[in-house]
Write a structure and sequence with these properties.
- The mean pLDDT is 92.
- The chain is 19% helix and 25% strand.
- The chain has eight helices and 19 strands.
- The strands form five sheets. A six-stranded antiparallel beta sheet has the order 9-19-10-15-16-17, with no helix packed on it.
- The protein is α+β, with helices and mostly antiparallel strands.
C-alpha cells in the first residue's frame, strides 16, 4: 500500500507537470480539465497477503509472506509487479462497501471528480452534488466546445451517445441533476440508479469464482442515496414496492441498451470457441516466425503452456561469433527465452519470477549456418507441471535439464513474444534488454506435440480461469 501511495504521489506530480505545460502556453484558463480520482473501485485481487508479482494471481499460485519479503527492498521498483492486499482494497473504498468488480455497489463505481475551466466556469472552489456518470464526459466536452454530436463518420452512421452534458451544473450548484437513470452490470452483479434511489444485487463477490445463486433468485438491496451516502441502510424490506419499481426499470434499461440476455457465466464466456468468437490460434499446432517480429501478445502467439513442444531456429553466425535472444516470450515476471550467451545456446524458463531454470550448452556455435532445436518434454498429469528440456545443435544433443515448475495459464499482461530480441523486461538477469541477436535468423518454428485428452481439457479450463481473472482485473 505504501507503493500505491507513492505512485499516487508520482501520478499527482506528473499531472502537475502537464498542467504547468498547458499553463506555459497561456491556454490553461481556456482549457477544460476533468480529473477523475480513481476508476472503478480499489482492486481486491491481491489476496490476503498482497503480491510481489501480480502474474501469480493469474496463474493460481499463492505467494507466501516469505516470498514477498524476499523482495521487500525492491517493492515499487522495476524488479517487482506488486499488488496490495485485499484488506487495503476494502479500506481504499471506504466509506462504501465492496470493491472493484462489484458494479452494484458504490464501492465499485463511485469516484470524486474535479473540473477546472476558469474561462468557462465563474465559480471557484465550489462543490457540486449532481449525480453523473462517466458517459457524460463526452457530451459535456461537445457542449463546451460548441461542437455537435457526430451522426455519421466517413459514411458510417454512429450509435447515439448515451450520456448527457453536465455543463449546466457549472453555473448552478443547486440545479437538479439531468442524469436521472443509470444501469450497472458486470458478470451478473447489477444495479439501477434512479432519482436518488439505488437498487442492486451482489450476484458474486470479487473474490468468489462461483455465483451465489441463480439470477432469478438474487437478493436485492435498496438505498436512498440522498440521505444515506455510505449505503448502510437497506430499505428493501421496508419499501418493497419501490424495489419492484426499480427492478422493473433495470430490465427496461437492459433491453434499451442491449444488456440482455444477462450472462453470469464466468470461465465459459471467455472461451472464444464456446461463445463463437474468432480465435487466431484456434487449432494451430505450429507457427513459424521471423526476425523483427516483436511484441506478439499471447492471443496472437501459439500457446506452448501445459504441453510438449519444440522450438527450431535456423541461424547464421558471423566469424566474430554471436549473442542475443533468438525467441523470447514475456519477461521478468514469467516467461522463457532461447538465446545465445557468449555464443552458447541457452534456454531459460522463468517461473513467475520465483524460480528460474537454465539449460546451456558448453560450447559456442561455430561461424556459419546452424540449426538450434529445443525440445520441451512436458510431464503431463495436469496443468503447471514440470518438464525436461533438451538442446540440440545440428541434431546433436548438447545439453539437457529439469524445469520443475511451469506457468499454467498466462505469461504476461503486457509483454509479448519477440524474435531476435527480448524487449521490455528480461526473462533472465543474465542479459540486459533488448539483447538483440547479432547474427542472422532465417526463421524460427514452434511445433506443438499431441497431448492427452484429460490434460487438454484441464489446460483449457486453466486458460479460461486466467482469462477470467485478467478480464475482471481490467
Amino acid at each position: 500500500m505504501e507503493v500505491f501511495a507513492g505512485f499516487g504521489e508520482y501520478a499527482d506530480t506528473e499531472i502537475g507537470r502537464l498542467i504547468d505545460a498547458v499553463k506555459a502556453t497561456g491556454q490553461l484558463d481556456n482549457t477544460l480539465v476533468f480529473y477523475i480520482v480513481g476508476d472503478n473501485g480499489a482492486s481486491a485481487e491481491g489476496g490476503m497477503n498482497g503480491l510481489f508479482n501480480e502474474m501469480t494471481y493469474f496463474n493460481g499460485v499463492q505467494e507466501s509472506v516469505q516470498d514477498i519479503l524476499k523482495h521487500y527492498d525492491e517493492l515499487g521498483s522495476p524488479m517487482t509487479y506488486s499488488h496490495y492486499a485485499a484488506g487495503w482494497a476494502v479500506a481504499g473504498d471506504t466509506p462504501f462497501t465492496w470493491t472493484k468488480q462489484v458494479a452494484s455497489s458504490y464501492g465499485g463505481t463511485r469516484n470524486g471528480m474535479v473540473v477546472h475551466w476558469p474561462k468557462g466556469i465563474a465559480a471557484k472552489g465550489e462543490v457540486r452534488s449532481q449525480w453523473h456518470h462517466v458517459i457524460d464526459i463526452v457530451p459535456t466536452i461537445l457542449e463546451a466546445a460548441k461542437v455537435p454530436e457526430p451522426k455519421s463518420v466517413n459514411g458510417t452512421a454512429q450509435t447515439p451517445i448515451e450520456g448527457v452534458s453536465m455543463a449546466y451544473s457549472f453555473s448552478d450548484a443547486k440545479a437538479p441533476s439531468s442524469h436521472k437513470t443509470q444501469y450497472f452490470e458486470i458478470f451478473g452483479n447489477r444495479a439501477i440508479y434512479s432519482d436518488g434511489w439505488l437498487a442492486g444485487t451482489i450476484h458474486r463477490a470479487a473474490w468468489e469464482t462461483t455465483n451465489r445463486r441463480p439470477l432469478d433468485q438474487d437478493i436485492w438491496e435498496l438505498y436512498d442515496t440522498r440521505s444515506d451516502f455510505s449505503l448502510t441502510n437497506d430499505l428493501a424490506a421496508k419499501s418493497p414496492d419501490k424495489l419492484k419499481e426499480l427492478q422493473d426499470l433495470f430490465l427496461s434499461e437492459a433491453v434499451k441498451y442491449s444488456v440482455l440476455p444477462l450472462d453470469d457465466r464466468t470461465l465459459e464466456r471467455l472461451n472464444a470457441a464456446m461463445v463463437g468468437r474468432p480465435d487466431l490460434m484456434a487449432g494451430r499446432t505450429s507457427l513459424t516466425v521471423h526476425e523483427g517480429m516483436i511484441g506478439m501478445s499471447e492471443n496472437v502467439f501459439i500457446n506452448v503452456k501445459n504441453r510438449s513442444h519444440a522450438i527450431t531456429a535456423d541461424v547464421e553466425i558471423p566469424s566474430t561469433g554471436a549473442s542475443g535472444a533468438i525467441l523470447a516470450q514475456a519477461g521478468r515476471f514469467g516467461g522463457w527465452s532461447l538465446y545465445l550467451k557468449d555464443g552458447k545456446p541457452t534456454y531459460t524458463y522463468n517461473f513467475l519470477g520465483l524460480q528460474r531454470f537454465t539449460i546451456a550448452a558448453k560450447q559456442a556455435l561455430p561461424a556459419g549456418k546452424s540449426t538450434i532445436r529445443f525440445e520441451f518434454a512436458y510431464d503431463g498429469g495436469g496443468i503447471g507441471k514440470g518438464a525436461v528440456g533438451t538442446l540440440f545443435v545440428n541434431g546433436r544433443n548438447v545439453a539437457s535439464g529439469r524445469i520443475e515448475r511451469t506457468q499454467c495459464c498466462g505469461f504476461s499482461a503486457d509483454e509479448g513474444a519477440d524474435v531476435g530480441a527480448d524487449e521490455g523486461t528480461p526473462v533472465t538477469e543474465a542479459y540486459k534488454v533488448p539483447f538483440k541477436f547479432s547474427g542472422k535468423i532465417s526463421q524460427v518454428t514452434v511445433e506443438l506435440k499431441e497431448m492427452k485428452k484429460a490434460d487438454s481439457e484441464e489446460a483449457v479450463e486453466g486458460r479460461k480461469a486466467a482469462m477470467l481473472k485478467k478480464g475482471l482485473s481490467d
